[in-house]
Amino acid sequence: MTKKTSLHDKHIQLSAKMAPFADYDMPIQYVSVKDEVLAVRNSCGMFDVSHMGEFFVEGKDAIKFVDYLIPNNFESVEDLKAVYSPLCRDNGTMVDDLLAYKVRKDLVLICVNASNMEKDWAWISSKVGKFNCKLTNRSEDYSLIALQGPKAEDHLIDLKIISKNEDIPYYSVREKKFNGAEIIIARTGYTGEDGFEIFCSHKTANTLWDLFLERKVIPCGLASRDVLRLEVCYPLYGHELNDELTPLDSGLQWTVKMNKPDFCGKAALEKYKPKFRLAKLTTEKGIPRAGYDVISDNGKKIGTVVSGTMSVVTGKGIATCLIEKELFPENKKFFIQIRANAVEANYQTQPFIIGGHK
Amino acid sequence: MAHKIPGNLKYTIDHEWALIEGNTVTIGITDFAQSALGDIVFVELPELGRKIDKGDSFGVVESIKSVSDLYSPLSGEIIEVNQNLESSPELCNKDPYGSWMIKIKASNSAEASELLSAQKYETHCSSL
User: Fold this and answer.
1) In a mutagenesis test of the A interface, which of B40, B65, B69, B86 is the best target, namely the one with the most A β-carbons within 10 Å?
2) Average pLDDT, stretch A59-77?
3) Average pLDDT over residues A85-109
């Protein structure tokens, strides 16, 4: 049975193109993917991402436990911060990637991918063990709206959810009240732009959605979300990341903190020799798509496109590719096989565009 | 949503249109097709002189999220391609019946009778 988010009726009213995603009937696009992308880059868009999972870790050891659970630093970062990290098994492979929010000294909110929620829950539950904390899956209780773009902050100020002089740094979290209801807002997102993610009750989500619509915030679907994240090279589980890869194969070296005393997967990752290297490629002619072959200048297949689309901002084909580490060409000459043609692709060291986040 | 379906054209169930003038046939995609695809960002068309059979793929049209094959409504030889679409693929969205993709010299005029009339195509679209 396909599940529905609390905002499902709103999407139908707006005539969104709907499709199943991770057991949910989700909006893919409303009017135009291009317009939705540009709204987020230039003003403000909103996404219903209520399908995502919310786990609460509560208790004295909440922060300690999450620090042990993930390869990235968590205990050592400041209070009220958000941390991105892969979630690794003991053998170093990735169960998922997630955001962990230090809401209070004894409360951590973990936001996980909807499609991985059950295996995340099983894995994380199995690791609580000796830690003095309680894990609760609150995914059914929470809706999640991502309000993204340079104007996002202004909307929250106008609605008095945050105050004008309030300093909420990028990648941090606050508990707030809206119409008497408790909400959690985080200055995070999946677009590379400034913006907020609002965890709230289903009722509050419906109220906020309508208020944002009245304020001409553009509703955006999962199609534009995918373009936005790829333009700034954020990974997506099932593409850049999967059950067989470690963070060291997928360009997530920066999240693996080997100087931490211990974390799940540390011993394996210390010894691990990566099999892949992630490459960012652009094409002038033709659009790379997931599954296309990547070829070296001597015609040999050296890897595969894992995400590909056309960038709305640059108008070029953009792709992230997993290249077999031993075959990574020193001359940085790459071709992507697009139907009958091997199309020249340019190797990039920087993200395809730089988002405007603070 | 009502889509434009000009009465002077013939159609395929795959949403190509054909304007038949003697044995010269002009081919493009319908208003229904462009609307279903969304923002069209890339069109790949064949080389001149290629011979194709009815139902063969003669190119692709890509939106941001999808790649779709283009199928020839009739058999024949490619005699012209609309190169404007390479630099301005969005014309397929703006003016689907003005933005033809290829012209062919039809090799089997009998095939034309197998195409859908505007009325039949409209019925087909409303069944989707």
Assistant:
1) B65
2) 98
3) 98
CB B13 within 8 A of CB B25: no
Chain A residue at shortest CA distance from B69: A339
Mean pLDDT of the region A109-132 = 97
Contacts of A226 in chain B (CB under 8 A): 65
CATH architecture of the domain with range A51-123+244-273 = 2-Layer Sandwich (3.30)
Q: Are the beta carbons of B65 and A223 separated by less than 8 Å? A: yes
Helix (H, G, I), strand (E, B) or coil at A155: helix
- CA dist A73 and A80 (Å) reads 14
Tell me which fold the domain B10-115 belongs to.
OB fold (Dihydrolipoamide Acetyltransferase, E2P) (2.40.50)
Tell me what the mean pLDDT of segment B69-87 comes to: 97
Contact of A36 with A221, CB cutoff 8 Å = yes
Helix, strand, or coil here: A142? coil
So where are chain A's domains?
8-47+142-231, 51-123+244-273, 275-348
Sign of CA dihedral B99, B105, B108, B113: positive
Per-residue pLDDT, B94: 96
Query: What average pLDDT does range B57-77 have in this prediction?
Result: 96
Question: For the domain bounded by A8-47+142-231, which CATH number is listed?
Answer: 3.30.1360.120
What value, to the nearest 5°, has the Cα angle with vertex A103 and ends A100 and A104? 125
Inter-chain contacts counted by CB atoms under 8 A, chains A and B: 32
Give dist(CA A197, CA A144) in Å, integer: 7
Asked if the domains A8-47+142-231 and A51-123+244-273 are classified in one and the same CATH topology, the answer is no
Provide the pLDDT confidence category of residue B2 given band limits of 50, 70 and 90.
confident
Q: Given CATH 2.40.30.110, say whether it is the number of domain A275-348.
A: yes
Closest residue to B65, CB basis, from A33, A286, A339: A33
- Give CA torsion, residues B74, B75, B77, B79, to 10 deg: -10
